[in-house]
């Protein structure tokens, strides 16, 4: 139904209400076979032989964001960028922010500093060659910057990254620095360089940090509960928060690996058929922009921590 000019203006005014916080919309651009939950049944040497679905799924997200006038940050895996260069260029051409998701989607604390440096530099170079501009942001595979890999921040700053979004202030079997700040802050790395951190969203419930950042939590929680947690994390709509999703999470037709463990299948496949519709609702219920825009819109004083302090918070 076509809106008359008065109705259209009201809708646009609601969409651009500056009293609403500008949350960060982030997409980790990887394929279904890259995920840690399926790493026990899919080896990296099998990846080139599997049917890729990352391009078509990312294109759907691109169309959805265009319909809602949202610019997002796409954390791109170097492995994907090498094989789908036109997709990455299209994302940049449409005004979205391009950041690095590393190269091979391996957990950092399982890598040596030398391997991590080589892969991260390689991925950064691939992306910068494609979009012809600096890539300044980074997100680790499975949020794997923990107390055991805090050294990765030194390498990121040395390679020219100025901000990161890899630290989840929760307890989890694969990631997390539980007592780290829940609001954006700055880390002074061991080499003396600062790196800005935009942590993943958590809400305080009865003194506990409940994850409310997106991904599996977005799919597994009922939407009204997730909306409540995300709003609560923003302290009643006052402070920008981080949301993330993967292209494969809106793809219920992807291949199924029934030989994975029950828990891995639960993590990966739950509510894939509902995720796209929920994302549409989220884009209506909250206001989103890129990570950089959201960080810059955060007006509160930002904490500065030393890297060694991060270890003590774990």
Question: What is the terminal separation in angstroms?
Answer: 53 Å
> How many runs of DSSP E, i.e. beta strands?
12
Order of helices and strands: HEHEHHEHEHEEEEEHHEHHEHEH
What is the C-alpha radius of gyration, as a whole number of Å? 19 Å
Q: How much beta, percentage-wise? A: 5-15%
- Average pLDDT metric: 90
Q: Which bin fits the share of residues in helices?
A: 25-40%
Principal-axis shape: globular
Uncertain runs are 1-17
Which class do the helix and strand fractions yield? Answer: alpha/beta
Main beta-sheet strand count, sense and barrel state: 5 strands, parallel
Tally of helical segments: 12
In short:
This protein is of the alpha/beta class and 314 residues long.
What does this 3D model show about the protein?
Helices cover 38% and strands 15% of the residues. By secondary structure, it is α/β, with parallel strands linked by helices. It has helices at residues 5-15, 54-67, 78-83, 85-93, 113-131, 152-158, 215-220, 223-233, 262-269, 272-285, 291-297, 307-312, and strands at residues 22-29, 73-76, 97-100, 137-138, 163-164, 185-188, 194-197, 202-205, 208-211, 242-245, 287-289, 303-306. Mean pLDDT is 90; it is low at 1-17. Helix 2 (54-67) links the parallel strand 1 (22-29) and strand 2 (73-76). The radius of gyration is 19 Å and the shape is globular. It is built from 12 helices and 12 strands. The strands form 3 sheets. Strands 1, 2, 3, 10 and 11 form a 5-stranded parallel sheet that branches. Strands 4-5-7-6-12 form a 5-stranded mixed sheet. Strands 8-9 form a two-stranded antiparallel ribbon.
């Amino acid at each position: 139904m076509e809106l008359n000019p008065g109705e259209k203006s009201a809708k646009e005014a609601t969409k651009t209400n500056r009293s609403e916080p500008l949350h960060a919309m982030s997409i980790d651009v990887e394929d279904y076979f890259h995920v840690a939950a399926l790493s026990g049944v899919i080896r990296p040497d099998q990846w080139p032989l599997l049917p890729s679905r990352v391009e078509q799924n990312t294109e759907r997200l691109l169309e959805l964001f265009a319909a809602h006038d949202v610019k997002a940050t796409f954390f791109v895996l170097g492995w994907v960028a090498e094989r789908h260069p036109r997709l990455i260029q299209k994302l940049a051409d449409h005004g979205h922010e391009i950041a690095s998701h590393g190269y091979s989607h391996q957990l950092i604390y399982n890598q040596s500093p030398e391997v991590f440096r080589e892969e991260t530099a390689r991925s950064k170079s691939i992306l910068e060659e494609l979009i012809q501009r600096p890539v300044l942001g980074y997100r680790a595979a499975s949020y794997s910057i923990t107390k055991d890999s805090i050294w990765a921040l030194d390498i990121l700053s040395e390679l020219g990254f100025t901000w990161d979004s890899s630290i989840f202030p929760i307890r989890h079997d694969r990631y997390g620095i539980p007592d780290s700040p829940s609001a954006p802050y700055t880390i002074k790395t061991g080499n003396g360089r600062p790196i800005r951190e935009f942590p993943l969203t958590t809400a305080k419930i009865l003194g506990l940090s409940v994850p409310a950042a997106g991904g599996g939590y977005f799919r597994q929680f009922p939407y009204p509960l997730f909306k409540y947690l995300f709003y609560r994390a923003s302290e009643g709509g006052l402070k920008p928060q981080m949301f993330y999703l993967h292209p494969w999470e809106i793809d219920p037709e992807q291949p199924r690996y029934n030989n994975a463990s029950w828990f891995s299948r639960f993590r990966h496949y739950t509510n894939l058929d509902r995720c796209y519709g929920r994302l549409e609702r989220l884009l209506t219920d909250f206001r989103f922009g890129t990570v950089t825009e959201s960080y810059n819109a955060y007006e509160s004083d930002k904490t500065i921590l030393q890297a060694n302090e991060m270890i003590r918070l774990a």
